[in-house]
Automatic annotation (TrEMBL):
InterPro entries associated with the record: GH (IPR017853), GH13_cat_dom (IPR006047), O16G_dom_2 (IPR045857)
Keyword flag Cell wall biogenesis/degradation: no
Domain Glycosyl hydrolase family 13 catalytic, first and last residues per copy: 25-407
Single GO molecular function: alpha-1,4-glucosidase activity
Family according to the record: Belongs to the glycosyl hydrolase 13 family.
Keywords from the UniProt entry: Glycosidase, Hydrolase
Lineage top rank: taxon: Bacteria
Pfam families noted in UniProt: Alpha-amylase
UniProt keyword Hydrolase present: yes
EC number: 3.2.1.20
SUPFAM superfamilies tied to this protein: (Trans)glycosidases (SSF51445)
Name listed for the protein in its UniProt record: Alpha-glucosidase
Length: 530
C-alpha cells in the first residue's frame, strides 16, 4: 500500500519489480564528475540519467557516497546517514532520486554493516576509552597472545592481506577483516542493529528503492574467535565456513531477518546481499522469505569462457535459489574484479566473448547486474604503479595490484582524456589515451558498437516480457557449445565457445553477439533465436 507520505509518487507500485530487473552498478567515483575535481559525484550521475534511460536499465546501485576518509574508497563509512562533500550533499541525493524516478529508474544504495571507518564516532570513542568499556564492546577489542600480549589474539588474516588485527597504544588489539581503517562491528552489541535500523529508515524515508548489503556473509563472528585454517586465506574465493570461521556464521541470519523486517515496512523495496559463500545450500539460506530478497551470485565471474563451465555455473545458481522461489542473479563484472573483457582474453577477442556472454546473461531468468562501462566494452586498465590506490596494493607489500584497473573513470566523449568525464584537468585514476573509440558519444552513433548492441539486447529483453518463463531447458549441442530455452518463453539462446563454427539450432535469429556465418554459429559468439 502506498503511504501518503511516500516521496516516490511517480513510480508505479509493482511491488516485485526487482524479480527480473536489470540493475546498473554506478561506481560513483568513476561515473561522471560535475564539479571538476576529477572524482565522480551524485550530480554527475544525475546529469547522465538520460543516458541510462536510453541504455534501458531499470535500477541503479550506487556505491558508497557517505562521509568517509576513503581508505577503501567509501567502504570505510564514518557516518552512514550523510553524503561526503566529495560526492555532494543530501540535497544532491534527493535531487538524484527524484529525477531518476522521473526517468523510471529506481535507485538502490550500499549498506556497510560489517564494519565502520576508524573515524566513525563510535570507534573514536572506543579508542579514548579503557579496555572492557562499553565503547570498546561495539567492536572486537581483545588482549593479544604471548606473555606480553605482543601477538595478535588469533591467526585471522585480512582480506586485503596481512593480519586482521591492529594494536592500539594501550596494548589491546582490534579486529578488521578488511583494512585497519575498517574495524569490524560487534553485532551482539544492541547499539549495532539499532543503528542499522535507523540507517535503513533514513534512506527508505528519502525514497530509495533498495539496498545492496556489503559483505552480507560477514557480520557475525563465532564466540571465542577460534583460529582459521591458514589454507582458507586465499583471496578472491567463495568462503567455506567449515574451514574459515571468519565468514558465513549462522548468527548472521539474524541480521538479515532484521534488515528484511525494516525493508518490508516499505512496500516495493528490496535488498540484495553480497554473499561470497561456497556451498549452494549455505548460499540459499541468505535468500529465505524472511531474509534478503536477492543474493549476488558470483559464479559467472569465476567461470572461464567455456560452455561447460558456464552451464555448470548457471545450473548451480538456479539450483541454489529457485527451490526457494527466489530469482537468481547474474553478474559478469563489478568494482572488485578484473573486467570480463580482459578475463576473456582482452583485445577484440575479449570484446567478442564479452558480447556473447552478455546475451547469455540477459537471456537467463532472474536479475542482471551490469557494471558501469561494461556496456562500452571497457577492458581492465594496466595502471602504472604510481597511480595505484587500492588498499590491496598497499597492504600486500605491492605484490597484488588490486582493483583500481576496473575502476578507471568512464569515457563519455572527445578524443583525449578526460573524455568528458570531468571539466577539470585530471581524473582520480588516469584514463588510457586510446579510449576515443570507446566513448559513449562515438558508440551511440555506431550501430555496430558494444553500446548499440547492449541497447538492442536490453530493448528485446523488455519487449519479450523479460523473456518470460522461470525454468531453463537445455538442448543437446555440439562440444564446446550450449543452447537453452526458457520454458514458457519462445526464445532460445545458443553459445559457441568451441574453436570453430557449428550448426545453428532451428529458428529465426533475433540478435547475435557478432557477425554470423550463413547458417552457422561462429566461435566466440552467442545468438538469440525465436
Ligand atoms: C566488498 C566491496 O565490494 C569492496 O569493494 C570492499 O572493499 C569490501 N566489501 C569491504 O567493504
Ligand atoms: Mg566531483
Amino acid at each position: 500500500m502506498r503511504r501518503s507520505s511516500d516521496p516516490r509518487p511517480e513510480i508505479a507500485d509493482e511491488s516485485a519489480w526487482w524479480r527480473d530487473a536489470v540493475f546498473y552498478q554506478v561506481y560513483v567515483r568513476s561515473f561522471a564528475d560535475s564539479d571538476s575535481d576529477g572524482v565522480g559525484d551524485l550530480d554527475g550521475v544525475r546529469s547522465r540519467l538520460g543516458y541510462l534511460e536510453l541504455l534501458g536499465v531499470d535500477a541503479l546501485w550506487l556505491t558508497p557516497f557517505y562521509p568517509s576518509p576513503m581508505a577503501d574508497h567509501g567502504y570505510d563509512v564514518a557516518d552512514p546517514r550523510d553524503v561526503d562533500p566529495l560526492f555532494g550533499d543530501l540535497a544532491a541525493f534527493d535531487r538524484l532520486v527524484a529525477q531518476a524516478h522521473e526517468h523510471d529508474i529506481r535507485v538502490t544504495v550500499d549498506l556497510v554493516p560489517n564494519h565502520t571507518s576508524d573515524r566513525h564516532e563510535w570507534f573514536r570513542a572506543a579508542l579514548r576509552s579503557a579496555p572492557g568499556s562499553h565503547e570498546r564492546e561495539r567492536y572486537f577489542f581483545r588482549d593479544g597472545r604471548g606473555h606480553a600480549g605482543e601477538q595478535p589474539p588469533n591467526n585471522w588474516t585480512s582480506v586485503f592481506g596481512g593480519p586482521a588485527w591492529t594494536r592500539v597504544p594501550d596494548g589491546q588489539w582490534y579486529l578488521h577483516l578488511f583494512a585497519p581503517e575498517q574495524p569490524d562491528l560487534n553485532w551482539e552489541h544492541p547499539d549495532v542493529p539499532a543503528d542499522l535500523a535507523r540507517t535503513l529508515r533514513f534512506w527508505l524515508d528519502r525514497g530509495v528503492d533498495g539496498f545492496r548489503v556489503d559483505v552480507a556473509h560477514g557480520m557475525a563472528k563465532p564466540r571465542g574467535l577460534p583460529d582459521m585454517d591458514p589454507r582458507a586465506a586465499v583471496p578472491g574465493v567463495l568462503h567455506d565456513n567449515a574451514v574459515d570461521p571468519r565468514f558465513d556464521n549462522d548468527a548472521v541470519h539474524e541480521v538479515h531477518r532484521m534488515i528484511r523486517k525494516v525493508v518490508d515496512e516499505y512496500p516495493g523495496r528490496m535488498a540484495i546481499g553480497e554473499v561470497w559463500v561456497k556451498e549452494d545450500e549455505r548460499f540459499a539460506r541468505y535468500v529465505r522469505p524472511d531474509e534478503l530478497h536477492l543474493g549476488f551470485n558470483f559464479r559467472l565471474v569465476q567461470a572461464p569462457f567455456d560452455a561447460d563451465a558456464v552451464r555448470a555455473a548457471v545450473e548451480h545458481s538456479l539450483a541454489a535459489v529457485q527451490p526457494h522461489g527466489t530469482p537468481p542473479t547474474w553478474t559478469l563484472s563489478n568494482h572488485d574484479v578484473t573486467r570480463h573483457v580482459t578475463r576473456y582474453g582482452g583485445g577484440s577477442l575479449g570484446v567478442r566473448r564479452a558480447r556473447a556472454m552478455a546475451l547469455v546473461q540477459l537471456a537467463l531468468p532472474g536479475v542482471v547486474y551490469l557494471y558501469n562501462g561494461e556496456e562500452l566494452g571497457l577492458p581492465n586498465v594496466e595502471l602504472p604503479d604510481w597511480a595505484l590506490q587500492d588498499p590491496t596494493w598497499l597492504r600486500s607489500g605491492r605484490t597484488e595490484r588490486g582493483r583500481d584497473g576496473c575502476r578507471v573513470p568512464l569515457p563519455w566523449e572527445g578524443d583525449a582524456p578526460p573524455f568528458g568525464f570531468t571539466a577539470g584537468a585530471g581524473t582520480w585514476l588516469p584514463q588510457p589515451g586510446d579510449w576515443a573509440g570507446l566513448t559513449v558519444e562515438s558508440q551511440l552513433e555506431d550501430p555496430g558498437s558494444v553500446l548499440s548492441f547492449y541497447r538492442q539486447a536490453l530493448e528485446l529483453r523488455r519487449s519479450h516480457g523479460a523473456i518470460s518463463g522461470d525454468e531453463v531447458e537445455w538442448y543437446g549441442a555440439p562440444a564446446g557449445c550450449f543452447a537453452f530455452r526458457r520454458k514458457g518463453g519462445g526464445l532460445i539462446c545458443a553459445l559457441n565457445t568451441s574453436g570453430g563454427p557449428v550448426p545453428l539450432p532451428p529458428g529465426e535469429v533475433l540478435l547475435s553477439s557478432g557477425p554470423m556465418d550463413d547458417n552457422r554459429l561462429p566461435p566466440d559468439t552467442a545468438v538469440w533465436l525465436v
